[in-house]
């Protein structure tokens, strides 16, 4: 039965919502029948900040790092104050009393800290002890050296201690092994290490080898232990007892207090609160990967996966006794190793060479799979011996409270906790004093040192956490030891507890039932998987009927019986599921066909026509137990029973409608993704509340790759940036050409020639034999991005045709003799990536390969005369490259010891980076070696498998019934199929509307995978057979260009930017990782109305903005000068300027940074020296000039000095340039019918001052504090960066404000306020490019116009200067000359005349980056509007912008 009635078809077409979700944008479109009824774009800050190095960081992380720096500075102050407190208790050590110290060190509300300014203390600080009749020293180093051999006065000794506490050295140097090596090398190269070897202390080394010789000592990286050694030597020389009972237990309490204040460091705060929760026991924390329980479970999991091939080439499980031997003889005795070690061990046991189920390296012939060993278990057994081994064998039976004690009253779990939690100092003390285990001598930093064996073990352990808790793993391990695979062991783990006393008696029967359930589950997965593929294809036919009216079988016919054609479809589906080769080997083919046929028939009998449901393993097991009379009192473990991590939909309080929940969950810490999901929720909920969509709406979402975690994002960018370096690749190409073709070829001189060669059209060339070759037209080559693609493939193949073995000369590379072909034809595999492309001789491709896979080519394994040499041997080079990247990837899967955050991030970034390279080359090799194409390969090309896509789908599924995730590559193909984008044209991203266009495309792509794949298959086949682009329409009367025009002309971009400057952070209070709860004054917990304890919160007191620039600047009085630059003196005193010119703000900069701004140098003498001598400048005394003072922007007072106060008041403050300007005050008044407008920029530090005083910020409070005398302004507005305005040329345009075209053309966003308050910078709402990109495009347009005119006049073209060897400098020089338009215009004038110059100047001035007023016939991307041209309608005053992109007017007039 078939239907073609249009009304009937449309009745069954559900509304579709397309969502194009990016890191800082969200495009959306609603398709209702044959119409895109609603659409829009929202842009927003990404939640991450892109750094100069290309990576990203979250504002949260930046704040944390800034807080860490502040904490470090505070800790240094506390150490100084603590030492001074010790010295103050006996005034003989420092001329300071405790009250003077506390006025500086203790905070009192409403009082500023006051640095002690008594004269004796200041002289004590300057090492001047003449106030006691003592000596004056040049620096504290002299005093520290004297202290080694001569008695000091108490005050001198105190000053020595104070100098030590100001430095105290590095506990360790370098955050990575490489960094440590470089810093150790630095100590050697500078002579510091040698100086230390030849002297007793750091001070003696620095004084004798550096200070006395006038050598600068910088970044010498002294160790803290070297400072501790000096402290002990000085104390001992001054008569103090430095004997110790333990490592740090000094017998002399005074020396102990000095050690604590100078050397001791508090252990790092526990991060227990940041650990995720177990997926099976949600109330328990995840287990560290170094825990013996985790190591044991991981080892058994791996062992149970090992299979060997018997004599009939069938896979067999290892015998149970052999598994136990493998665990005891290999795993527990190794850290990390290769499967090859397992192979050697098992071969010995089998007494023959055996094949195993792990990949064998073609390069080495060995099993290279990396295997995680048991570092802690292995290490602790070596240290403690058999008692540790015996304890580990049954560790899952105990917890830390009842585990057997194995050494001096401590269990194996106690020892692990000490290794895991203690720092090295405490761990060494624990090892020596509690466990009575002696140290061992090892090399560290190229020195022999005595270390605790537990400290050595700690440094070998990996830091990280698994997915499960210790509690869950302890239940799983017994079943792993019995040989069960992980999933089965998880399912069985809770049975002993749930069955209690009955477990032992029914154990054997239950385990048999579990095995039966697993077999049933595996069988169901095959049958349901094949059946659902058939159902998907049928649903594709139904969708095709809805869209086009094409007939469909069995519609509403629930008694339909399968036909012979249907049965053939069943057979084909089975073959497609397994692949032809695998299917032929199946012995149960008839049974599978029969079962699939039954399920497919049941689908047609089903009135709901739903996909066949796949039962979970847990449900099958429950059912099996129930049938056999076994009842359970609780739920089993299993990952498949996990609920939606986002929970369920919630109810809107105002309307009672169900809406999406808040998308923030503990398991996702990615701020960029969370930000995007929050905006997505806001949009979708608004559409629900407005009645535009409901739960039956089909949702199709595409998620951008950059929403992955930061480390993966950095790796992707690194990988992509490498592939973008076109110029470097051309240079490599020419180097290759120089080597192979033309020995005298000058690479550097011909780079530009080659670029032009790629850009120009040359219709015929000649090969080496002189044969004429007809090339493709230039437009054809470049339109397919072919020049670069061909070149890259050619380089990968080292200039050789992979099929014939012949070399491809450069003269033929861009000719019709060479094809870019699909290794596996696109009719078999929808893959157009570089991994599936090859450059080869067109003759071979068309006459020999055709639609064959390489494996089936005639010369795959042997040379054939007239065709080519064997293909397979040529793959060895690719396999070597693949194996290399695989090795690099696997070496970064796990840490090799303790990692800080930076080292961990770098390892993870490199893991992702090398994985991308490995997967690329693996795909490349597989395309040449495979003999079949499975359905799963095609699905991988079409289905988005990103984790972020899965999370997005799961979130939307809390409300919508049907949610599909579309891969970006699929969307790109359908843009071409439906005519949104021309073949081989690069998608334009200049306007934000491209997000809405993509969202519209998503609604047009068939949701049904079979129908979608059929359209893609048609496209690939047409491209392969005819070289043309396949195109079609999603429905009758569809016109893609009309839709694009509608979207671009009727879309207002919503720039969603929440003002968070004054938003205060609130966080849960934790101590040692545990949540704290509110208590009353009696210590009792306070509860809420539900009787639950209230979590204690701490609230910040911050402003989320840059208050000041990052560096301090100086403030000086500017001296008057004579015309020759000499300072003016009167009566022997400097004569300073007065009034506004009295003071200058200065900044000290390195010489290299000011060479381009010499006029900013303050000292006129130094200025002229640098102007002439440049980077080699020396001052009048002959000293090399390293830094100079230059003029800086006006500074603001940051804080008051608390020490070394001056009699000059302006010197008693720290200054810095103002930070960001987030707000501005717009003032307007009418004077004699003339409107006068004024803007006052509001800097962040001013916002903070208002907020600190009033705990809020408002326009009125700001004006009251900073501009109390302003009056006469009838209209005042507070403007904000990010605020929207409608630009009016004059008041007459006010009447057009509600016209959509007018709104689209005149809507702008405020991006910046000028410091002087005279200009506002605006950005057009549709403009997606940064101002730097627009400026670059404008400059390129100007360059093209000038070049065209210069060519007409015979003026030489501007080319790169190849005599500049440094490529960066060469590029900089080239661009400087290229974009120096004034010089080029002057050149035109000199060659022609002034009139011509004026004409050309007028032509290039038509292109501007920023306009100062709104021009006619042009919509500027950027405006820089001065106060004379301000005429706006303001967001929040005149209108609001809804999240759906509509202007809501706030005034009815």
TrEMBL record:
Please tell me whether the keyword Manganese is annotated for this protein. Answer: yes
For this UniProt record, the keywords arranged alphabetically read as follows:
Antiviral defense, DNA-binding, Endonuclease, Hydrolase, Magnesium, Manganese, Metal-binding, Nuclease, RNA-binding
Q: Enumerate the active-site residues.
A: 20 (for ruvc-like nuclease domain), 822 (proton acceptor for hnh nuclease domain)
What is its quaternary makeup? Monomer. Binds crRNA and tracrRNA.
The text the record gives for the protein's domains is:
Has 2 endonuclease domains. The discontinuous RuvC-like domain cleaves the target DNA noncomplementary to crRNA while the HNH nuclease domain cleaves the target DNA complementary to crRNA.
Tell me which family the UniProt entry assigns to this protein.
Belongs to the CRISPR-associated Cas9 family.
In Swiss-Prot or TrEMBL terms, this protein is called CRISPR-associated endonuclease Cas9
Lineage, top ranks? Bacteria, Pseudomonadati, Bacteroidota, Flavobacteriia, Flavobacteriales
